[in-house]
């Protein structure tokens, strides 16, 4: 049966929207989930996905016109199917101009303007799925940034989309661009301070008073960011920079067995002990702990023993037995750069951006992991059927005293994010359906906004 | 330039006249009540006693007539300086200024030049209401063939006056009425301030304010307050509306990355619009770290009520707030 393509209602008081652009020309095949068209509401331009597989037919919605909500603007037809005969909608093209021909001028991909009949005759399976036009997608994803910030990012070879803007409407300004490449994910940062046995980044930017109006002023707090298995402080580079530029003190240790910290560890429970020196350095501060993945274990340990204001666990380990064991073992002692590259791709949930680290960064990481510092820890993590770590009782104890949040990605391929829904009513869960194991990389703005809610 | 005296802005202009008139007998002054009365703002003062009534000439109450006489005298070899009682009365003489003085050199193929100087007491803040308080420098700045300057200090008032008298083309000098009593160091004797050159009055690193006339002093006061909050403001005194010193402004914005234009004339289509556009068109574009901002006069005739009059043009607090917002990324 043909599927109606309608303009969806996305806002309470919305009656019309402007059809900005079709991403699929009439007669072209679509797969459910493909971007079908863009529409503009009072608030934004948004992409609308196809709801079914088939071929786009009987396109009556014209680009640039305002169309009522719920109005049928096209059909998705199964192979051999005809669009239902229908009244001609108000927005239809004049009868003597074939719509498909008009659309084709905007879409060089379809060389021959398809007609309705042709569209119905084309077997779907023989034609590759259509792609959104590159320019349209790029325009939507380009971050707002000042010319100077763009210039600095260009000079420092930094991807603007990894940055968080602090000016109006989220605009990235020069202050938001890290000073050097070292601050980017995947790059070693030099000269961490030594707290006891642990090397730890201690960053604080004294923000000038001018930066905030009275009502915007947030009391500076201290954030302790704990990285996950096989990572180090650089995995928080972007978040560190953003929090610091907002006036907060940010402590990011390299956990035992990791990065520049020379102390070793064989068991997850040993990760927290050497961190006491870091917490002593933050004594008296309003302390918020953010822990990713295996960092949840020391994060909970510290939250039970020190005065902590909030605990945020990002894709935490130990919520259930489910874990990608090969990932852990492989990362702990990768056989080759190639193997490591494959494993790292499991961290990404974006099929169009499978590589989260640059080739140089992967090689650097390989050299570091090849030393085998993590093999004992990896074995301690894994039991016969899954994780040997259970954080649930500690979470419930801590959640009885202070706000505990879990940020989970629906496409996490390392742990099972669904387990976050079974932690009890005291624990808030922020679910990102399209994020993988690194929601703070894939949704930096949203994660930051969640963290700021604890202040 | 041997010795320096502390003079008011009005006295500095008078000193400039005395210097020019002593050196060059072609220099003559025209205007309403500039003789025995000494001028509406006492600028010409006792010059009639020093140089006689054939060089300090009271004109009838007809700005159009006086402008025509001054332009004719300039074309015929004198160096006349015409005083308007209020810049608002330029409207009465617009034909002579914009169609005759500005165009004669062009239309006669360079056969004549019009070395006339016209002085316009301008601006609000004196309770003189809508027809005596306007800032019309952008009107005349729009006309090719004219040069337009706005001195902000006694030093510049004299130096720009002497440069204007020596200039072969018509030069319009807008003197802000609130500045006439301002004191400052003025060298004795002859010196000039170049027309078309802005001056950096205060060095800073966080934002550039381009201002002119009394707004320069308000911007400097705002800069003092902002410095207490660790915001470093650069203040450029535009000095010349036509030609505009684009280079100085662009160089500054490349260093500070932020620009605020402050001007008393009505905001729309004002001087700040021109400066903003020039910066946006320049190499400074790539160095902008915030939208360009403008503070200008309200879109209204200047009110008589003193509080409304104050509210109608940028004040120190407005500049301070605008710079704060600019630097904080709130624009």
Task: Please characterize this protein's 3D structure.
The complex is a heterodimer of chains A (455) and B (331). With 455 residues, chain A is of the alpha/beta class. Chain A folds into three domains: 138 residues, OB fold (Dihydrolipoamide Acetyltransferase, E2P) (Beta Barrel), CATH 2.40.50; 36 residues, E3-binding domain (Dihydrolipoamide Transferase, Irregular), CATH 4.10.320; 273 residues, Alpha/Beta hydrolase fold, catalytic domain (Rossmann fold, 3-Layer(aba) Sandwich). Helix content of chain A is 25%, strand content 18%. In chain A, helix 5 links the parallel strand 11 and strand 12. In chain A, helix 7 packs parallel to helix 12. The longest helix of chain A has 11 residues. The radius of gyration of chain A is 26 Å and the shape is globular. Chain A starts with a strand and ends with a helix. Chain B is of the alpha/beta class. Chain B folds into two domains: 184 residues, 3-Layer(aba) Sandwich (Rossmann fold), CATH 3.40.50.970; 130 residues, Rossmann fold (3-Layer(aba) Sandwich), CATH 3.40.50. Helices cover 36% and strands 21% of the residues of chain B. Chain B is built from twelve helices and 14 strands. A seven-stranded mixed β-sheet of chain B has the order 3-2-4-5-7-6-12, sandwiched between helices. At the A-B interface, helix 4 of A face helix 12 of B.
């Amino acid at each position: 049966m043909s599927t109606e393509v309608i303009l969806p209602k996305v806002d309470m008081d919305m009656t019309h929207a402007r059809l900005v652009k079709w991403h699929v020309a009439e007669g072209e095949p679509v797969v459910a989930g493909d971007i079908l068209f863009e529409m503009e509401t009072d608030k934004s331009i948004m992409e609308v996905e196809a709801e079914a597989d088939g071929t786009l037919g009987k396109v009556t919605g014209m680009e640039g016109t305002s169309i009522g909500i719920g109005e049928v603007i096209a059909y998705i037809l199964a192979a051999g199917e005809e669009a239902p005969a229908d009244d001609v909608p108000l927005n239809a093209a004049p009868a003597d101009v074939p719509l498909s021909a008009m659309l084709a001028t905007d879409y060089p991909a379809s060389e021959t303007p398809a007609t309705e009949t042709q569209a119905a005759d084309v077997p779907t399976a023989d034609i590759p799925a259509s792609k959104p036009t590159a320019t349209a997608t790029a325009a939507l994803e380009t971050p707002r940034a000042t010319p100077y910030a763009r210039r600095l990012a260009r000079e420092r070879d930094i991807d603007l989309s990894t940055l968080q803007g602090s000016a109006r409407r989220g605009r990235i300004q020069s202050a938001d661009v890290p000073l050097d490449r070292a601050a980017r994910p995947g790059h070693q940062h030099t000269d961490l301070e030594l707290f006891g046995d642990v090397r730890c980044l201690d960053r604080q930017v004294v923000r000038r008073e001018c930066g905030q109006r009275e009502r915007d002023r947030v009391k500076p707090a201290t954030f302790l960011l704990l990285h996950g298995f096989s990572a180090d402080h650089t995995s928080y580079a972007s978040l560190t920079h953003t929090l610091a530029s907002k006036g907060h003190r940010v402590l990011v240790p390299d956990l035992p067995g990791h990065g520049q910290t020379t102390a070793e560890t064989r068991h997850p429970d040993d990760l927290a002990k050497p961190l006491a020196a870091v917490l002593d350095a933050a004594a008296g501060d309003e302390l918020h702990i953010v822990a990713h993945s295996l960092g949840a274990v020391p994060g909970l340990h510290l939250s039970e023993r020190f005065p902590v204001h909030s605990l945020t666990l990002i894709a935490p380990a130990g919520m259930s037995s489910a874990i990608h064991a090969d990932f852990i073992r492989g990362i702990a002692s990768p056989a080759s750069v190639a193997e490591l590259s494959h494993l790292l791709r499991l961290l990404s949930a974006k099929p169009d951006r499978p590589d989260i680290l640059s080739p140089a960064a992967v090689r650097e990481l390989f050299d570091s992991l090849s030393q085998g510092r993590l093999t004992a820890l990896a074995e301690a993590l894994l039991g016969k059927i899954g994780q040997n770590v259970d954080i649930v009782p500690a979470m419930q104890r801590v959640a009885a005293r202070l706000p505990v949040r879990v940020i989970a990605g629906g496409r996490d391929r390392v742990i099972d994010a669904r387990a976050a829904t079974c932690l009890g009513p005291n624990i808030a869960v922020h679910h990102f359906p399209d994020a993988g194991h690194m929601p703070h990389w894939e949704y930096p703005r949203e994660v930051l906004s969640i963290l700021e809610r604890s202040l | 330039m041997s010795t320096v005296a502390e003079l008011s802005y009005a006295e500095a202009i008078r000193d400039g006249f005395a210097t020019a008139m002593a050196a060059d007998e072609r220099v003559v002054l025209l205007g309403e009540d500039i003789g025995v009365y000494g001028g509406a703002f006492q600028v010409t003062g006792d010059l009639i006693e020093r140089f006689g009534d054939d060089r300090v000439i009271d004109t009838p109450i007809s700005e159009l007539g006086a402008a025509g006489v001054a332009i004719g005298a300039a074309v015929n070899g004198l160096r006349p300086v015409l005083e308007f009682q209020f810049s608002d009365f330029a409207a009465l003489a617009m034909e002579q200024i914009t169609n005759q003085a500005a165009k004669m050199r062009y239309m006669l193929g360079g056969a004549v030049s019009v070395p006339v100087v016209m002085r316009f007491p301008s601006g609000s803040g004196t309770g003189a209401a809508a027809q005596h308080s306007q800032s019309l420098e952008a009107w005349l700045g729009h006309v090719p063939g004219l040069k337009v300057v706005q001195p902000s200090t006694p030093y510049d008032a004299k130096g720009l006056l002497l440069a204007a008298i020596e200039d072969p083309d018509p030069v319009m000098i807008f003197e802000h009425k609130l500045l006439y009593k301002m004191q400052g160091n003025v060298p004795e004797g002859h010196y000039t301030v170049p027309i078309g050159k802005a001056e950096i009055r205060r060095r800073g690193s966080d934002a550039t304010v381009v201002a002119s006339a009394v707004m320069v002093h308000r911007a400097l006061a705002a800069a003092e307050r902002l410095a207490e909050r660790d915001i470093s403001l650069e203040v450029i005194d535009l000095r010349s509306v036509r030609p505009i010193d684009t280079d100085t402004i662009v160089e500054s914005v490349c260093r500070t990355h932020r620009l605020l234009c402050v001007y008393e004339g009505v905001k729309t289509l004002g001087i700040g619009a021109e400066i903003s556009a020039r910066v946006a068109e320049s190499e400074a574009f790539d160095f902008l770290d915030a939208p360009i901002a403008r503070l200008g006069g309200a879109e209204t005739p200047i009110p008589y009520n003193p509080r409304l009059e104050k509210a109608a043009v940028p004040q120190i607090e407005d500049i301070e707030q605008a710079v704060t917002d600019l630097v904080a990324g709130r624009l």
